[in-house]
Amino acid sequence: MEGKKDETDEKRSIVVGPWGGNGGTNWDDGFYNGIREITLKYDRCIDLICVVYDKNGKPVSGLKHGGGGGTKTAEIKLQFPEEFLIAVTGHYYPVVRGGSPVIRSLMFKSNRRTFGPYGVEEGTPFFFPMEGGQIVGFKGKSGWYLDAIGFHISKTKAPKVMQNFQQRFRRLTSSLPFAPPPRDGGDNRAKSTINS
């Protein structure tokens, strides 16, 4: 059913973060099967983020979060479902003196590649690695800029090829005959004798 959350998937996902400042308005894209694309607008900080998710094999565009600034654009296209996000790093720091911290830089790591860094690596660093899982949704705060960022994470499911291999391997090993223990309780290795 489109738009309805799968309670089983929701129970398997957890929310981490956000990292960044207190400015802006809270937003939460929710959790999905995975991430297909990420678009960033940036310059001295991350001005805007927009994510295209995967929901049951179909692309679902999230809302744009942030302002209209940023002179540079980054479009990250993952080769979903084989490629998925496993880590995000970045920095947060005020973009104006006396202002609230905002996300100054972001770098994304998939199970295959690294994208970025985008923006200015200045201020307080944050690092979120995912071992044995993947990032399946974004949340945060935004106004004129991307003020804070957090993630929905889910345990990675083994690809079908790997599942099939594991099943065949189990069947193969369970059908192998085991050698009986040695009768004399000793070493079964061949013994050589030397005639003099």
UniProtKB/TrEMBL annotation:
Matching Pfam families, A to Z?
A: Jacalin (PF01419)
Ranges of residues in domain Jacalin-type lectin:
13-155
Q: Out of the domains of life, which is the source?
A: Eukaryota
Query: Is this entry keyworded Metal-binding?
Result: no
Q: What is this protein called?
A: Jacalin-related lectin 19
Query: Would you identify the family this protein belongs to, as annotated?
Result: Belongs to the jacalin lectin family.
The record's listing under InterPro entries reads:
Jacalin-like_lectin_dom, Jacalin-like_lectin_dom_plant, Jacalin-like_lectin_dom_sf
Q: Which SUPFAM superfamilies match?
A: Mannose-binding lectins (SSF51101)
Gene Ontology MF terms: carbohydrate binding
Keyword list (alphabetical) reads: Lectin
Q: Where are the stretches annotated Disordered?
A: 175-196
